[in-house]
Amino acid sequence: MSERHLVFLIAVAIAAASTPIRAQDRDGQPDSLLRRIQRLDSVMIARSHRVDSIRRSLVRPIPPVRVQRGTIQVRTDSVLGPSVRVAVDSVAALIERRGGTMLGARVAGHVLLVIPDSVQSAFWTRPVVTLLADTARRWTVGRAQTAADPTPAQVAAGLATLVEQIAMQGADSALSAWVMLGRAPLRDATPTETADEYIQMVTAQAAVVRRCRSRDVASCLDALGIDSLPGTRLDRWYAPEDYRSALRVAAPPREDSAAVDAWIRCRHDGDQTSCRAAAVALPNDRVPMPLPASVRQAFLREVLDAGGAGAYDRLLAGTGTLRSRLTVAAGEPLDATVARWLQRVERSRPERMRPPAGLILASLGWSAAFVALALIRRTSWA
Predict the structure, then answer these.
(1) I need a surface site. Which of 28, 293, 332, 340 has the fewest CB within 10 A?
(2) How far apart are CA 185 and CA 293, in angstroms?
(3) How many CA atoms lie within 13 A of 183 on its CB side?
(4) Does residue 256 form part of some domain?
(5) Nearest Cα to 107, choosing from 145, 162, 43, 146?
(6) Nearest to 198 by CA among 29, 28, 349
(7) What is the pLDDT of residues 93-121, one digit of tens each?
(8) Is residue 177 part of a domain?
(9) What confidence category does residue 24 fall into, taking pLDDT thresholds of 50, 70 and 90?
(10) For the chain, the helix, strand and coil percentages under 3-state DSSP, each to the nearest 5
(11) Beta strands across the sheet bearing 112-120
(12) Which domain covers residue 142, as residue numbers?
């Protein structure tokens, strides 16, 4: 063996002798990797526990008590069961009286839920009873709440609200846009609702509503958004003396600086010329509706009352213009429905408000306290 080969072998041996240090470093790597895997496993376990907790809070167990009458099915607990049974009877009668096969099929596709719940108030948690339109999800489109210890009438009101919301689910866009509130008025109107309807009609500052109250059927249909008279919305709905009230809820486009300046002067100074300039600058789609959605709901209730059983099904299955669909649902010329609705509105004028007895007693008590305090201070000065 030559000297050159010997030197090469010695160099290889020296290099091999230095490798155990690196091998020891690599031998320590499995331990560090194992510790990292264990740490990651613990993080995953903690996060899975949090996910399970959130899932349990969102998906509640189905209550054990099942109540069914006709097409309506409700799940509740044993405490609320007696009230729910009475309420379901009345709501089932409402569905039978107002609806038909279409409404029944829509209600049958849901299992309503009536359960004890709680809501967060300012400083504490307040107990309530929550009504949901589906047992599969905690947060649904149909949702209502009532008192923690509700009467059968309160439960029935909540269930009827869910049924009204279910009735409008899946309705065509034209009908849904006209109704606006997302529920069909299947229940009878309460005294408060009829009084509010009268107040809305009387206080509406729009010429078309004033013509409607004078028995102009075409103006009523225009104000309700069912049919249209010739001309722009501003000309059809508002007179010049109504412009300022319309501009309280609508403004011209901000790109039109002259109209915006006139709008500001109209709101602050009430200048009639400025009000007219700002109102004329309103685009047709920005002119505010003369009547709120609650009045439309009241008129739709009048239509369903006139049509009787099956009116709701005819309304949803109808085609053509909104006026023709409402006519089919009412089962009579719409002019007759409008005339009867106007008579009912005028009869629903609320009585003059009387102050509650408690308010009178409280006022007298505070007055006596102020007089006594004044006499005491006068005596101390003397």
Answers:
(1) 28
(2) 12
(3) 17
(4) yes
(5) 162
(6) 349
(7) 988 888 778 888 889 889 999 999 888 77
(8) no
(9) very low
(10) 65, 10, 30
(11) 65-69, 72-76, 112-120, 125-132, 143-146
(12) 65-169
Determine how many CB atoms are found less than 10 A away from the CB of residue 132.
24
Alpha-carbon separation of residue 25 from 20, 31, 137 (angstroms): 9, 11, 55
* Sign of the alpha-carbon torsion through 304, 308, 311, 312: positive
Question: By C-alpha distance, which of 51, 53, 98, 47 is closest to 72?
Answer: 98
> DSSP labels for 82-122?
HHHHHHHHHHHHHHHHH--HHHHHHHHT--EEEEEEEEE-S
Verify that 122 and 258 share a domain, yes or no. Answer: no
Asked if residue 102 lies in contact with residue 63, where contact means CB atoms within 8 angstroms, the answer is no
User: Which band of pLDDT confidence, cut at 50, 70 and 90, is reported for residue 318?
Assistant: confident
Residues 6 or more apart from 319 whose CB is under 8 A from it? 325
Listed residues 117, 136, 169: the one ending a domain: 169
pTM of the predicted protein model? 0.72
Cα–Cα distance measured from residue 93 to residue 187, given in angstroms and rounded to the nearest whole number: 11
- Our CA angle for 226, 206, 177, nearest 5°, is 30
Q: Is residue 143 scored above 70 in pLDDT?
A: yes
